[in-house]
Amino acid sequence: MDSKTSARALPKHHHNTTKTGKLEPTASEGSLKSTQNTTKKDTGEIPGSKNLGASVQKVSADSLSHKLAAATIGTSSTVLAKASREADHGINESLGSLENSADQEKKISEYGSVKSSSVSAKVSDGASSLAKTSGSAKISDRVDFVESGKSSICRGSTSSDVSDESTCSSFSSTVNKPHKANDLRWEAIQAVRSRDGALGLGHFRLLKRLGCGDIGSVYLSELSGTKCYFAMKVMDKGSLASRKKLLRAQTEREILQSLDHPFLPTLYTHFETEKFSCLVMEFCPGGDLHTLRQKQPGKHFPEQAVKFYVAEVLLALEYLHMLGIVYRDLKPENVLVRDDGHIMLSDFDLSLRCAVSPTLVKSASMDAEPLRKNPVYCVQPACIEPTSCIQPSCVAPTTCFSPRLFSSKSKKDRKPKNEIGNQVSPLPELIAEPTDARSMSFVGTHEYLAPEIIKGEGHGSAVDWWTFGIFLYELLFGKTPFKGSGNRATLFNVVGQPLRFPEAPVVSFAARDLIRGLLVKEPQHRLAYKRGATEIKQHPFFEGVNWALIRCATPPEIPKPVEFEKIPSPASSAGEKAVNHMSIANQKGSDNYLEFDFF
Ligand SMILES: Nc1ncnc2c1ncn2[C@@H]1O[C@H](COP(=O)(O)OP(=O)(O)OP(=O)(O)O)[C@@H](O)[C@H]1O
Fold first, then answer.
1. Pfam families under this entry (predicted)?
2. Torsions phi, psi for 66 (to 5 deg)
3. Does residue 349's CB lie within 6 angstroms of at least one atom of ligand 1?
4. Which terminus of the chain has a lower count of CB atoms within 10 Å, N or C?
5. Atom of ligand 1 nearest to the CA of 288
6. 329 CB under 6 A from ligand 1?
């Protein structure tokens, strides 16, 4: 077991994560976060964590020590608190009970891997995969963003207690998820909705619990009789309420509802029963990148495979920033692998929503004039108020707005048209960095926390570029750069230790240079601080990547197909009965009938 594993012995969060109950939510905070160490804790805000000064050198050792102690002590004490709290909650009566006592032990253990999932195929050296894009594919970044703008037509969260989001059902099949227009799963959902009015738990067969997080459990489910399979996150509303996590669940749901991107989760439907709140999403059979990395020779990916995964993650982050969402929880555990080998970034309950002001720097044709009249990009501006962001349901798609032009050059200063064809990159550049976002929350995963979060200086979208650097480092080297002997040491290292690279494995200069640019401790000097993903895309590490067609690139590895038919069907597999049935089976430790190898 490598050093990483020992610190990640948790159901999902192999890294120790701190999700704080934010004491003083800023106006731009998307939601109040609660912490856990198994990893999201109810405490963890560093007391008095105001501006500590820009540089590490200026931070008094005492003051930092105090903050780190508060964070880490709070963290470890909450681990136990959480375990006992969950027991107290009588979660046995509900979904939480699926976490049997063994699970609880695993959650608070520092050792051992909990996830049993595995990806059997080896990761190939995807050296040529990025170049192998099909020229005929009709996708591009530009199209993605235009279509995403349309997705704002129906963003309503359910107002009634027991229903799916049927108030918007007329839109819900394809209008608000244009990328899913030809998706059979959408059609199946829509067919049931037109037949029965609204979807509910009873329409699904729950086949297997895939995992559990702090606010719910995720089940592999079939929309009964359709052979359409989903990942359904089921949350106990009573438990959410008593643990003050309703807002967190709401934030996640609202963000999921707003997404329509190939590398982000599709929320097919959401419904509530008296007891449960359920999110129905795309099922990813390939497991997560943490698990997949553990199976690689040397526990690190080949550089070309890394290039593929981080390029897709970069596009996902770019899209999120355009929506005004700072992700804040990038780590391999949160990057799932779809059935086609492409990635899906998951877990949005730490995300911060804020205002964005997209700016078109360079159009595809370098001629700004047509864009003034017919803006190519429609970006959904996120709002500042935490709970009102995606609230108004079925809003007319009036939220597209003309991008501001970065340059105010007069016509005569512009390049003549005949130079346009000589542009190296035909892709337009759009900056939508929510750089003004400021949160004082202490959230994230210790090894991935940005220095400005630890120092309590307030943070914005640059934290995603820091975590992107750590993520890149971990995939390449098989470990994170600042990991210490414990959480406290890790936080000290992040703030005060210089970046170092191990001698092995050998990694290209370009990769190390990119990491150096991203892991700059002062956010304002960090790569991508000003122009976001665009700056990173242009780095030599990504040379040769066809950004517009990356969805057609050959992934390093395709997961083995899941033989859904071979999954034994639980005796009682529909609706709440299934939940209770699985719960009882798990309590007895007798869920063998559900055992099969997914990944
Ligand atoms: N779409 C999916 N396909 C396959 N497995 C999934 C999917 N979504 C989640 N899972 C599995 O379910 C587990 C729990 O997911 P969930 O999102 O609840 O975890 P989490 O990030 O810990 O949640 P939370 O942030 O609410 O604590 C994950 O570890 C993952 O293995």
1. Pkinase
2. -60, -45
3. yes
4. N
5. 31
6. no
Q: Ligand 1 center to residue 481 CA distance, Å?
A: 25
Task: Give dist(CA 518, CA 525) in Å, integer.
Answer: 9
- The superfamily (CATH) of domain 181-283 is Phosphorylase Kinase; domain 1 (3.30.200.20)
CATH topology agreement for domains 181-283 and 288-363+428-561: no
pLDDT per position as a tens digit, 317-341: 999 999 999 999 999 999 999 999 9
Would the pLDDT of 450 be above 60? yes
Domain boundaries, the chain: 181-283, 288-363+428-561
Buried b (16+ CB within 10 A) or exposed e, 57-66: eebeeebbee
Q: Tell me, what's the ipTM? A: 0.97
How large is the angle between the packed helices 487-496 and 61-88, nearest 10 degrees? Answer: 140
pLDDT of 184 above 60: yes
Average pLDDT in the chain? 66
Q: Is 40 in the pocket of ligand 1 (CB under 6 A)?
A: yes
Q: Is 213 in the pocket of ligand 1 (CB under 6 A)?
A: yes
Residue 292 CA to ligand 1 center (angstroms) comes to: 15
Q: Is 130 helix (H, G, I), strand (E, B) or coil?
A: coil
Of 8, 114, 218, 333, the one to substitute when testing ligand 1's pocket (max ligand atoms within 8 A of C-beta) is 218
Q: According to DSSP H, which parts of 140-226 are helical?
A: 141-150, 169-172, 184-196
Cβ of residue 443 lying under 6 Å from some atom of ligand 1: no
Q: What is the mean pLDDT of residues 372-390?
A: 32
What is the best residue among 8, 10, 12, 36 to mutate for testing ligand 1's pocket, by most ligand atoms within 8 Å of CB? 12
- Answer yes or no: pTM beyond 0.80: no
| Phi and psi at residue 308, to the nearest 5° | -65, -55
CB count in 10 Å sphere of residue 504? 10
Give, using CA atoms, the residue closest to atom 23 of ligand 1: 213
CATH classification number, 288-363+428-561, choose in 2.40.50.140, 1.10.510.10, 1.20.120.80, 1.10.443.10: 1.10.510.10
Q: Residue 451 and residue 465: Cα distance in Å, rounded?
A: 12
- CA separation for the pair 37, 586 (Å, rounded): 23
In angstroms, the CA 9 to CA 380 distance is: 38
Q: Catalytic residues, which ones? A: 329
Q: What is the pLDDT of residues 539-554, one digit of tens each?
A: 999 999 999 999 999 9
